[in-house]
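User: Can you recover a sequence for this backbone? Please restate the input before giving your answer.

Assistant: Of course. Working from this structure:
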């Protein structure tokens, strides 16, 4: 039986193929080698393990995209529903304020009830802003400035901000401590978010830069 000598294109091992064979497996590395043209000895190997790996990666990528798209649609639906709810509550507040104005214009005896209704409507509007603003911010992935002890070290404050969801927290060593008598090392001097003083009621992009200036050597 005629044998054709060849070299494995994957590992370089010497191979022999029987006449008429369309493919063989390398005895050294195990890859499948397809013999496409015996006369010219043109061969092509198929790394089936690599193919399966690539197929699996593509499948995972598609599944991740589908999950991301489904999450995006769900988030958008929640955002639309929340905006509709906010609009209804705001209309109630405006109606209460309008009723209060009408009562105040009606006459002396209705001044106090009208004023109370106006105050009630304004307070309700402010509370709605705070409540629904927080819900909308969380839905959009924003984070709020956390509270921290003024005696906490810079590394502790950094951990507090990271646990609150901030992803870009930087420490800035002022290098102003000489003896450590008047100024303690690692004591926080200031915290800025996006270059500005943080506001406890504001919601921030989690990727915004948080800079913690602290004393040190």
């Amino acid at each position: 039986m005629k044998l054709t000598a060849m070299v494995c294109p994957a590992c370089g091992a010497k191979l022999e193929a029987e006449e008429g064979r369309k493919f063989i497996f390398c005895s050294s590395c195990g890859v499948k080698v397809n013999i496409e043209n015996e006369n010219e000895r043109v061969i092509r190997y198929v790394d089936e393990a690599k193919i399966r790996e690539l197929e699996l990666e593509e499948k995972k990528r598609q599944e991740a995209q589908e999950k991301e798209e489904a999450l995006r649609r769900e988030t958008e639906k929640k955002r639309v529903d929340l905006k509709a709810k906010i609009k209804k509550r705001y209309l109630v507040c405006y109606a209460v304020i309008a009723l209060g104005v009408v009562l105040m214009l009606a006459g002396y005896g209705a001044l106090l009830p009208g004023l109370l209704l106006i105050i009630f409507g304004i307070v309700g509007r402010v509370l709605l802003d705070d409540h629904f603003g927080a819900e909308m911010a969380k839905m959009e992935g924003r984070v709020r400035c956390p509270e921290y002890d003024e005696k906490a070290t810079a590394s502790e404050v950094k951990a507090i901000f990271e646990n609150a969801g901030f992803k870009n927290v930087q420490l800035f060593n002022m290098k102003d401590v000489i003896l450590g008598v008047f100024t303690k090392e690692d004591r926080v001097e200031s915290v800025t978010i996006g270059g500005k003083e943080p506001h406890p009621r504001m919601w921030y992009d989690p990727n915004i830069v948080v800079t913690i200036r602290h004393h040190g050597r």
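That completes the design. The chain is about 45% helix and 20% strand.
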